[in-house]
Specification:
This protein has 230 residues and is an alpha/beta fold. The protein contains 8 helices and 11 strands.
Length: 230
């Protein structure tokens, strides 16, 4: 039986495909204040601005290509039962070939009803505009978990972490909750790898295998290290 390999990914893995993150410069995201484009208050204040912002992010993500790190993680399914839990809203993991991807913070390629959140529509790379409504007549919004909103998939993510035989963190600062708390649900005997060039070791468990590299180089190192754990 293949070992369960659970991988938590963050913005660092998508950054190497050219997608900027909201932490890139002084609280601005593509020159917007985060609270204006990634909060329910921002949506209520100026929905047109929020839609324009995410329409641009969707176009940008659609033009980006999976990088070597995405591809190597997909290839690990040959030897492991791989579950990817991602904080990213792009679909680069899926396009690289990963078959089990759980999106904690939603998906750019989906819209949902602003009043009936159970209504979710795959829109691909299409734009969402004011006046685009669900079948019940409510305005559509991006299916993104904004700051201050509940994370619907967090319980499913916890269950995957509890069952992990090997746990890997790639390209996340472990400062965004509740995702950052997932590391606390793995078994104390579970091998833990963290790939990030900037993370502070003081916030990590003492038994961590820390690979201080960007995602592409770090995943290559990880692939070699995993050979002894198959």
């Amino acid at each position: 039986m293949k070992k369960r390999l659970v991988i938590l990914t963050g913005a660092g893995i998508s950054a190497e495909s050219g997608l900027k993150t909201f932490r890139d410069s002084n609280g601005l995201w593509e020159n917007f204040k985060i609270e204006d484009v990634a909060s329910i208050e921002g949506w209520q204040k100026n929905p047109s601005l929020v839609l324009d912002f995410y329409n641009a992010r969707r176009k940008q993500a659609g033009e980006a290509k999976p990088n070597k790190a995405h591809q190597v993680l997909a290839s690990l399914e040959k030897d492991f039962d791989v579950d990817i839990i991602t904080q990213n809203v792009d679909d680069l993991h899926e396009r690289a070939g990963s078959s089990k991807v759980l999106h904690l913070h939603g998906k750019l390629r989906e819209a949902k009803s602003s009043l009936y959140p159970e209504t979710i529509i795959d829109i691909g790379m299409d734009e969402i505009k004011i006046g685009d409504v669900c079948d019940k007549g409510a305005q559509l919004r991006p299916n993104i978990v904004w700051f201050g909103e509940a994370v619907p998939e967090i319980e499913n993510a916890v269950l995957k972490c509890i069952k992990a035989d090997i746990f890997v963190v790639i390209g996340t600062s472990l400062q965004v909750y509740p995702a950052a708390n997932l590391i606390n649900y793995i078994d104390e005997e579970c091998p833990l790898f963290v790939i990030d060039p900037h993370i502070e070791k003081g916030i990590l468990p003492p038994n961590v295998n820390l690979i201080q590299e960007n995602a592409v180089l770090g995943v290559e190192n990880l692939k070699e290290a995993l050979k002894s754990l198959e």
